Amino acid sequence: MRRRQFLTSAASLAGALSVARMPAQAADGSEAHAVPHLLDSFLALPGKKSAQVDVEESADPWRVKYQPDAELFCGSCFKTFVLATYLREVEAGSLDELEQLPLDDGIRSLVSPVFENLTGTTQARSALEAMIAHSDNTATDMAMKRVTPQKVRDFIAEAGLSKARIPDSTRTFFSYIAGAPKGEDLGWKAVKAIADAEKPDTTKFRPALNDVETMAVPASEFVAYYKRALAGDYFKKPETLTEFKRVQAMADAIALVVPANTAAYMKGGSIDWNGFHCLALAGQMVVRDIPVTAAFLLNWTDADGDAKTITAGYKDAVAEVLSKVHKRLVETRS
Fold this sequence. Notes:
This protein is an alpha+beta fold.
């Protein structure tokens, strides 16, 4: 739970890798429509993987995917749904980004680099920014409490994301995987004590990926969502889309994997929990007005290898994929 950003056999997988023209979804296409071996470095990583990359070249849009519907843990990537729902409520006049939201131990959560040691109130806009820019969990729970988890789930259902699963709050999620009954919030002091314990009682710990309180969204649903969200399909006013893009562009993961001077709207996620690890990234970059919408999910355990090494490999692999697509689009349009 402590890490919220990126830190520092392909042959056996080739049969499951699909490259296709998007207008003809039924069959795989030729690699002439994509960058050859685009996902090789990502697929060489250990653990369970899922990826999808959609490139909207006007003459011949194409897609590369690997197990895109796999239901893997996505970590903080789900927070984009909270942002979109909150801004829709602002648009409807039900909420106000300038409203002061309470900040205290009643809402405080683990992994909150912005708000963990602060008490008082702050603008809702600042909470939304901290939630996306620094993946602050206290900020996330402040926003979710105000907009309500049910509103977020209603939006997810409306968007047709049938496999997406989100927690009631990050603190309720942590409480559950630490052993609390379903729906019970252990409170700030208790969850902090568990996180700080040198030798925690792991006998009650549950998997981060579970059927009760989790964060899981398939790569295919992330891609479908971001394509529609960034086209403005979920918003009625242009200024709402502008605000959505402004906040999404603040995510700290972007600078680590997206080529320099490239517009991008993304959200990363991660977890380290009881020997289980996740790294994930989803969103869109725009290269010479061509949207490239992608999602990369990786779940692994201690048995798969050193976490720091795999983390570095993940970052490098995702950066390589986006760099190769960027290079193709720049050279194609030159």
